[in-house]
Design goal:
Layout lengths: L1 H44 L18 H5 L1 H9 L1 H6 L3 H9 L14 H16 L13 H11 L9 H32 L6 H5 L1 H9 L4 H4 L6 E7 L2 E4 L5 H23 L6 H17 L17 H14 L1 H4 L15 E2 L5 H10 L15 H13 L14 E2 L1
Helix pairs in contact: 1-6, 3-6, 14-17, 16-17
């Protein structure tokens, strides 16, 4: 009998353990299923602005449930601006940190189950181990040595002997020239005697140079005559009839000659390019250089709008998956601008729209889509956006930008 009771207890205990294990497995399976459903919702509504591991338009979401809690996340996803306006500290902090770009309210477009599934997906992704990034192989030692040699400054004494000899010879010639000039002044000035003080010599250029060496600055400043103009009297205010500084008069005469030459060169004979022409030439050169680099925002593009039904359907699907979160399902504008009117912030031509999508507008919260969408996909989305012109959807946002 005791043996039977012991076997019965053992059976009950094993059954209990099996039941608990089954519940845990069922819970894990349900949680995994929720995460799978949440992934689809996340990719359709959140990937335009969020990533698990990196800040994009909004913050990285890894372990956000541990920092904020599930209840706060539900409220924030349903209506983030309601929390911000209520003064919630965490909501205001996120809003301020990410350039005050409001997150769309998903309370009407997502059910409670959808929101819970998104949170389950975030939890599942947060638990995944970080991917190991392969180390970039070091540059060859030869290249490193070449770069180091290029950046190393050459000492003056390490210059080639020919160059050092040239510098030394030039210095000797300059010193000899100065020495000869000093000797000439010392030799000839005494021979002139008091004649150097004659007005005719002193007013000559040679005399002014001589007296400039001796400390008289008349050559530079002009002569102060201390003579008052007899015919210049303005309410008792008179002026002296002094010379203008010679350097000023010389520059004035040179500027007149330069102005005549400039007018003849640019406006009469038209042998020189004016600023507008130079600008256009430089822009053409820049466009040619940019065209060689497909990732240059200034590269000239000449795409045509796609009108085929299949291309527009593909563009619509891409738009709904990637753009509708910020621009609305009908392009009416939510966080982003209205795409159905005639007003554009960054140009309304298909090439302008293509570049806006490709390179984004990070300052306004628009992420660059190059690397995420191919060139053909971006052109399909751009063409679909242009097909929305004049559709006037309900709840359209006010016009922004310039009318095209």
């Amino acid at each position: 009998r005791s043996k039977t009771m012991s076997s019965l207890k053992k059976m009950i205990r094993n059954s209990s353990l099996a039941f608990v294990a089954g519940l845990l497995l069922m819970g894990n399976a349900a949680q995994a299923q929720d995460a799978i459903a949440g992934k689809a919702i996340f990719e359709g509504n959140c990937t335009a602005c969020h990533s698990i591991d990196a800040d994009v338009v909004g913050p990285a979401l890894k372990d956000v449930h541990k920092r904020r809690g599930d209840e706060w996340l539900v409220k924030f996803i349903k209506n983030s601006q309601e929390l911000v306006q209520a003064g919630d500290k965490d909501a205001v902090e996120v809003y301020e940190k990410f350039n005050k770009v409001p997150m769309p309210a998903f309370g009407t477009s997502l059910s409670d189950e959808d929101v819970a599934n998104v949170i389950a997906f975030i939890k599942a992704e947060s638990e995944k181990p970080a991917e190991v990034v392969a180390e970039v192989p070091a540059a060859p030692a030869a290249d490193a040595n070449a770069e180091a040699a290029a950046e190393t400054e050459v000492a003056f004494m390490d210059l080639p002997p020919v160059l050092l000899f040239t510098f030394a010879l030039a210095a000797v010639i300059i010193l000899l020239t100065i020495l000869v000039l000093v000797m000439m002044f010392r030799l000839f000035v005494p021979m002139l005697g008091d004649s150097i003080y004659d007005e005719d010599f002193r007013s000559s250029f040679a005399g002014r140079v001589l007296f400039l060496v001796r400390g008289d600055a008349t050559l530079v400043t002009g002569k102060a005559k201390n003579e008052i103009h007899s015919n210049h009297d303005f309410d008792g205010i008179q002026e002296y009839d002094n010379d203008l500084p010679p350097w000023w008069k010389a520059m004035f005469y040179v500027s007149i000659v330069f102005a005549v030459g400039y007018m003849l060169h640019y406006h009469v004979f038209k042998t020189g390019a004016l600023q507008t022409e130079e600008y256009e030439v430089e822009m053409q050169e820049a466009a040619l250089i940019a065209a060689k680099n497909v990732d240059d925002p200034n590269a000239v593009t000449n795409y045509e709008v796609l009108t085929e039904a299949t291309a527009l359907e593909s563009g619509k699907a891409l738009f709904n998956t990637n753009c509708a979160a910020c621009h609305g399902q009908d392009g009416q504008g939510t966080v982003g601008p209205n795409l159905t009117d005639e007003y554009w912030l960054h140009g309304g031509d298909v090439n302008d729209i293509f570049k806006t999508i490709k390179y984004g507008v990070p300052a306004k919260g628009m992420v660059p889509w190059q690397g995420k969408l191919t060139k053909d996909q971006i052109l399909e989305v751009s063409s679909y956006i242009l097909s929305l012109q004049g559709t006037n959807p309900a709840g359209a946002k006010e016009p922004q930008g310039e009318k095209m």
